[in-house]
Specification:
Blueprint (H helix, E strand, L loop, with lengths): L4 H18 L4 H16 L5 H23 L33
Length: about 100
């Protein structure tokens, strides 16, 4: 398939977005954004290897985000621990950890 003007712009802008977002961020956040950028660039390819590389990069990026958020004041406790397990909630829509239930 021939590259259209839209595809060319995507190949140019996609790799540049995350470095722009990294400016002024702490190092852990920059690491998470960099892994997302690697995943974005990998997904520009069309092979199964490119897809797998993007998938692994995004997984590592999400883990990096968790680490970065846990280092912030408040520690991200609402992300992990609730006093009431989700299976005890009446609806799956309410299966979140509101700050009033976090440690």
């Amino acid at each position: 398939m021939a590259a259209t003007g839209h595809d060319r712009r995507r190949w140019l802008t996609k790799p540049l977005l995350m470095p722009v977002l990294m400016v002024g961020r702490d190092r852990l956040t920059q690491r998470a954004l960099a892994l997302g950028a690697v995943g974005d660039v990998a997904l520009l390819g069309s092979s199964e290897t490119a897809f797998t590389a993007g998938l692994v990069s995004f997984l590592a990026g999400h883990i990096a985000w968790i680490i970065a958020l846990r280092q912030r004041p408040g520690g991200g406790g609402a992300l992990f621990l609730c006093r009431m397990p989700c299976w005890r909630w009446r609806s799956s829509a309410a299966c979140t950890c509101p700050p009033t239930r976090a440690w």
